[in-house]
Structure formats: structure tokens, C-alpha cells
Amino acid sequence: MSKSTVSNVIRGAGGVAPETRRRVLESIASLGYRPNAVARHLVQRQTSTFGLLVGDLANPFYSELAKLVERHASQAGYSTMICNTDGRPKLESARVESLLEHRVAGIIMLQFSGTASVIGELLAQDMPLVVASWEERSDCVSVDDQAGARLAVEHLLSLGHRRIVYVSSELVEPATDAARFEGYRNALLAAGLEPVYLRWEKVGSEVPDRATAFFVSNDVVAIQLVDTLEERGVRVPRDVSVAGFDDIALAGLRRISLTTVAQPRERLAELVVAILIRRIEDGVGLPLQQHRLHPALVVRSSTGPPPP
Amino acid sequence: MSKSTVSNVIRGAGGVAPETRRRVLESIASLGYRPNAVARHLVQRQTSTFGLLVGDLANPFYSELAKLVERHASQAGYSTMICNTDGRPKLESARVESLLEHRVAGIIMLQFSGTASVIGELLAQDMPLVVASWEERSDCVSVDDQAGARLAVEHLLSLGHRRIVYVSSELVEPATDAARFEGYRNALLAAGLEPVYLRWEKVGSEVPDRATAFFVSNDVVAIQLVDTLEERGVRVPRDVSVAGFDDIALAGLRRISLTTVAQPRERLAELVVAILIRRIEDGVGLPLQQHRLHPALVVRSSTGPPPP
DNA sequence: GTGAAAGCGCTAACAT
DNA sequence: ATGTTAGCGCTTTCAC
């Protein structure tokens, strides 16, 4: 009963006599032996751990996604090391450095803080990486942000709105925000209307009085916007309509009932993990794996016709 | 420039000549050398990774807590391996086994699925463990669930309610649920009233018509309950009052405005991590570290006087 | 102050 | 089918 035989039994490698196998298993049970993954990873020069970078776990969209990603990862035999970056580039690079030192098998970025260099560095080191938003340089899977925005804006347009404002926030990474704004802008331009870009942080001071509808770059901020508006006595959707993006669980509550662009979360999580595993197994040779998923408009009651 | 000298420089261990130190640092930079944490952990027979077990990351209370825990952990130099158990004991033990094989330095359970044996096994192996709810046998920190429930019920009582129903759900682990029910029960009994225990899953079929108020064991279910009630045309708080437990971020929204018992999340996360680190450093000799935090009632507009 | 040597617990290649 | 050997990349004595 040498180390290698025990190893063969544990790893399910063939070539072990049934009787030997039984004895090994028995000893393992009686001694309470537990294989040491650290040692295995060292000798294999490969861990079975993913690094999961998320901007803000307190944002339901990301925590829901993180949950799904972790599930798929563990089903495929991978553990998940989670890092909340708070959207801070400094923190992000520190956490990436730590993941690299831990020799994670691959990294998933649910939200990329905007420091383009981080992605470049990861790629330069051949670290398998999947970004859950559009990223030219690496494997990625995202929803078609432009199409999603167009869906929402066309809905607002068809309701009769003419003064539709785009509201952005720091919670959405710049590239994604840009794509959603672009979709919004194209839809407005096509209707011969003028796009207006507003930062959520400034809604307090400069909210355009004549706006009859807002398209907000994510649900969390959309819900906060409804809150803020109603605090000022503006009723939604009677006085003004609000549409969001993501379709977080909360958006479906009767009291919230937010019209929004739904992301296929389940499919997204599944794909992200599958793509990462593929990259890990097939290596650098594999061409870029980039997917764009279709979003769907979910009409609820935060949008309605503009006041007369 | 031997391996040990490099090691001494990296670890900041003294006894290295400034000139040598400079040269080592320079080589590290030019070669792009990155220390291998896996090897370090193997030789030290200790990782710097925490295992974080959470019942449901999609529940905002847990994701908010997870975020805080991860932050404190990383500030203390620990990585966080996250495991979503979905409240399923089978999954839970599988994930714990994986954490054990990874030789995590300690485990934090944000929600314990109810299989008492898991905790026993962990303790038997001297695995540092902190449970974020009351657990006699191990280090733990929780809010005073009984006191919290009493706060909520006394508020309802003072509003004039007499038929107050307790609503439980699978989302809350049994021990916590029991403590909250106990606090509810005591408060009702003290007022000479009869406690009623109802499972959320059964609210559809057997909701007591004469109830004028519900105390729900957590916010997520409380919010769903409000939804369900209003779907049936029952208005909150006009017809019936609802109070929850946790004070998730969502509860503060105007549209939701849920009266609830607030848990000191920030303090909880901080303590959990501090206690775990203490246990890791001081070992088995240290007596049990058990803390009970004080909850606070947050009165919002989901509660009001009962209808005449 | 620096280097040489041993060994953490495994796997993989090679003997037997 | 089983055992032996040689590392994986570090830290930690222990010599020098």
C-alpha cells in the first residue's frame, strides 16, 4: 500500500486490484485521512479554484449572478474565491495580485472597474479570463446592451414620450454604460429627438423639469430614482415614467413593479463558467470566445403614457 | 542570492543587508517573479483562506453580510472561498468537505442549514469555526433574536393589535427561527394573547382571516407577504400590519417602507472575522467566544393601528 | 548576513 | 498491479 497506490485509488485512476482498493478505502475511513488539495495543486502547478471579481456584492444583480456562477463552478469541480472590488481600481489590482499568487485556474470578472490595464496584464500572463460584459480583448459574454436600451426606449416612445432622459451611475462600468447610452441615443435620434445624459449623482441638482421619462442604466438606481422622485411629490408612472436595466428579483414586486430590460442571468452564468473551463483546458491556442446574449423587455407598471 | 535570502526579503524578515535587499527587489521586478502562495501554504501547513458558507447569496441580507465579511477578511490578509449551500444539507457537507481538503484556515457560517452534525464534525477536527447565529457549541456571534422579536411584537401591541401571527420560512435556519418565535411568543403571552405559528409556504391556504398583524421572521419573506396580501386586495398597513427582521437595504425604500428589526451588520461582520482570527492564532485553548448583539427596531410605514 | 539542506503532501514517470 | 523516485516552490533550521 504505497503512496501512489493510495493516490491512484483516490483519483479513481485505473489499475488497482479490487481487493487492494477495498483495503485502501477502509484505511482511509478508519484513519480519517483527507487528501490535501494544497499539495495536489502544488505538484500539478494548477489549482481548481476560480477567482470571482465583483464590483459590488450588495447589488442584487451581482449577488444573484455570483450565486449562479458559484453553483456552476462547483458543479464542474471548481472552488470560487470571491473578491469584492467596490469599484475601486486600487483594490481591484490588489485583489487580482492576490488571486495570481494563489495560482487560480482562471478569473471571472462580473464587473470590471475600468482600469483597462488590469485586463491587459492578465491577458499578457495568459491567465484564463472571462469578462461578463463586452470586452474586445478577452473571452467575454454579455447581453446586447445597445439592443436592450433600444427596446426600453422604443417602449417609452410608443407610449408617447418625447423628453426621455438617460440616467447613468457609478454602479455601471463605463463600457457598459456607454453601450446602453448608445442604444438609447440611436433610438432617440431615429425618432428625431434629442438625447440627454444625466449622472445619477447629479439628479438632485439638475433634473430636467420637462422630462417625462427616464431610462436608467440599472435597476438599483432606477428604483432609487423612483424613490427620489416620489419623495419630491412626483408620481411614477402618472407624472413620469421610469425604466431600468437588469431585471433584478426586486423589480418584480408589486410595490416596485419596474419596467426593465431583463438579462438572461442563468444563461450568462452558465456560459461564463463553460467558456472559462474551455479556455483553461484548451489554452492560449483557442480563438477568442465572445458571446452576445439577447435581452428582453419586461413591461411592468413604472411606465405609462406621459401626462397630457 | 539564495532562495532563503529571497524568501527573507519577500517576507520582510530581518537580517538582510540593504544592498542585497535592493538587488533582490530589482531581480524580482525585472523577472516578473510572483511568489507562489500554494507552495507557501503547503510548507506552512496553513493557508490564509477562509471558507464562507452562506445559505442563499440571493438573499440581500446574506450578500450584504458576505460583502462585509470579505472586506474584513481581505484587510486582515485572508482570502475568501465562498460556498452557497442553498440551504441543502447535502450540498453543505460536500462544500465543507471541499473546504477541509483545501485546508482553509477557518470557516464562517453565515447560515447553518440545520444539520447539527456538520458543526460537530468541524469542532471535532479543531477547525476554527464562527457561526453567525447562536450556536452553543462553537464560537458565534448573533443578534439577540428573542429581544428583537419582542421589540417588534411590543410595537405591534402598542399600536393596538391583538391578533398577531408569526410567519416563518425556510429561508431562516431553524434555531434562529425558534428564537424569534420564542420572543414573539413571550411578548404575546405577557399580553394575555394567543401565539399563532404559520409557515410562509402555507400562507396561501391557511392565512387566518382575523389576523390584523404579521411578524415575519425575515425581511425578504415580509416583503413577499406584503406583495401577496396586496395581490388579494388586502392593503398594508390599512387593513393589516407587517413587520420583518434584518433591515435589508430594500426595506428602507419608500415604496416598501418596512417596519423591521435591524441587525448591526457592520459590527457583526467585523466581530465574526476578528473572532475567527483570534481562534486561528490562539488555537483550541482559548475559551468559547460568544457574542450577542443588540438589535434595534426601525419603525416605518408597514405597520399602523388595526382597522376599527 | 548568507547559503545549503531538508521536507511540506502530493502526482507522475518509471521501475519492478 | 504495485512500489520507488523525483520533484512542485516554498519556509525553516542550521552551518558558515
Structure report:
Two copies of one chain form a homodimer. Chain A is elongated and about 85 Å long. The model of chain A has no long low-confidence stretch (mean pLDDT 94). Chain A has helices spanning 3-11, 18-31, 37-44, 60-75, 89-101, 116-124, 145-158, 174-190, 203-206, 219-231, 265-282; strands spanning 49-54, 79-84, 106-109, 129-131, 139-143, 164-168, 196-199, 213-216, 241-246, 259-262, 290-293, 296-298. Chain A is built from eleven helices and twelve strands. The first copy, chain A, has 308 residues and is an alpha/beta fold. The relative contact order of chain A is 0.13. Chain A has a six-stranded parallel beta sheet, with helices on both faces. The first copy, chain A, has a six-stranded mixed beta sheet with strand order 7-6-8-9-10-12, sandwiched between helices. Helices cover 44% and strands 18% of the residues of chain A. In chain A, helix 4 (60-75) packs across helix 11 (265-282) and helix 7 (145-158) packs parallel to helix 8 (174-190). The termini of chain A are far apart. The interface between A and B is large, with 48 and 48 residues.
Structural features:
44% helix, 11 helices, 308 residues, elongated, homodimer, alpha/beta, six-stranded parallel β-sheet, 12 strands
